[in-house]
Amino acid sequence: MKAIGVFDSGLGGISFLKEAVRLLPEESYIYFGDNKNAPYGDKSEAEINALSLDCAYKLMDMGVKAIVVACNTATGTAISDIREHLSIPVVSVEPAIKPACERPGDGKILMLATSATTKLSRYQALKQRMIDSSRVIDVPCSGLVDRIENGIFADDAFDDLLDGFLGAYSGEKIDAIVLGCTHYVFIKSAITRYAKAHFEGEAKLYDGNEGTARQLDRVLREHGMRESTGVGSVCFNTSGSMEKYEPIFRMLMSCELE
Ligand code: DGL
Fold this sequence. Notes:
Elements: E1 4-8, H1 13-23, E2 29-33, H2 45-61, E3 66-69, H3 72-85, E4 90-92, H4 97-102, E5 108-113, H5 115-119, H6 121-128, E6 136-140, H7 144-149, H8 159-166, E7 174-179, H9 188-198, E8 204-206, H10 209-222, E9 234-238, H11 242-254
This protein binds D-glutamic acid.
């Protein structure tokens, strides 16, 4: 059975992988985290493009049948190049601003992402297609991914950074917060904790992982590649130290996300 390749700049894509394994358990997966080069979000577009293509080629060389770009920053920068160079199906995560904007309300929608994602024309074009894009405020969060890559996930370990990014909206009505980076899904409870203490409104969290896993299902079916029986396997690879990251990958695969 051929596996599905999933990559991210580091740990974040595991949040997608959890969702894929939950919804498509018959499939096998090969994960590649480019932890040596994380974070991507503060690099130039040319660097992100080259690194993302490299991840995709590594997975191709491992013989995968399809690839999931589980990194919003890589999608925004390199998805066209990846699709152009690869002959297998490619699916990718994107900031989930659509379901957030479809939720009725007059409060703000905060879109948290890497600095690169918020600047990219692909994301800006996506935002312009929303019903009421003026409700969406882009919040570049430089520094969050570094902390998460260091294995820090505690609820109270991000207040200083979140205050720097979100303090300006304290006391405002926030209807939704979009987690526009796959790493942020692992600190949902830190973000919820901050939102409860500082915002009015529900501040409901959205991420693109479930939608992307459903899209993967559709694409595999269209190509006649969907495994329908049995239970697949998951294996991990990293450009960093396997000794350091494999235990973190496994811990994140088994942790409960609220
Ligand atoms: N997890 C990545 C994303 O979804 C990027 C993090 C980074 O390397 O800056 O955007």
